[in-house]
């Protein structure tokens, strides 16, 4: 590959729209295995039988909008303005109210407001608040990002991150949920292969997943981007892995 081709790929990744939570721009550039449990389908089943639901940190509402039926009261929260706009566009026509929320406690709802609280890949998890807004016997159903997701790529740019590898461990989250007042009835885990086929995908991912390499800019990491471009060009896709866990829990009472 020539330097010109490298520059073209960098420009493509740097100019791509990273608003919302739709990763279709990566089609043909990167791929990720999906968890075996089918979260979107199972979420739809839970929504069908709920009377009042809230989806916390809904992103652009893309996953929630796949549901075919919503309960009479259906709410979603989101903090990032571009995602709020996208979620509103997708969900308001379906009767789901989108609430701007800073992802910090307290949730802007009364006690015992919902019989179903859901979240897919929340950046922060405030278990006490989840329990507070759940009715006794209500359900929390979420798919979370697990420990050391994408760390092969993250450590390529940042070096070893051994102290961070324990973060988001499902055992720790189950313990925190239990302490807050939930009975965890099911936990499933998965390790999933990610293949990255060009450097444009890397730039896109690091612009979108801003917590992977905090403060990432093309200019700051240009040398490492060129190194990684050379590795991919000479050796094929860069392989990293994500981890996911599914938590199904019930509020006591």
Automatic annotation (TrEMBL):
<dbReference type="InterPro" id="IPR029063">
    <property type="entry name" value="SAM-dependent_MTases_sf"/>
</dbReference>
<dbReference type="Pfam" id="PF08241">
    <property type="entry name" value="Methyltransf_11"/>
</dbReference>
<dbReference type="GO" id="GO:0008757">
    <property type="term" value="F:S-adenosylmethionine-dependent methyltransferase activity"/>
</dbReference>
<dbReference type="InterPro" id="IPR052939">
    <property type="entry name" value="23S_rRNA_MeTrnsfrase_RlmA"/>
</dbReference>
<feature type="domain" description="Methyltransferase type 11">
    <location>
        <begin position="55"/>
        <end position="140"/>
    </location>
</feature>
<protein>
    <recommendedName>
        <fullName>Methyltransferase type 11 domain-containing protein</fullName>
    </recommendedName>
</protein>
<dbReference type="InterPro" id="IPR013216">
    <property type="entry name" value="Methyltransf_11"/>
</dbReference>
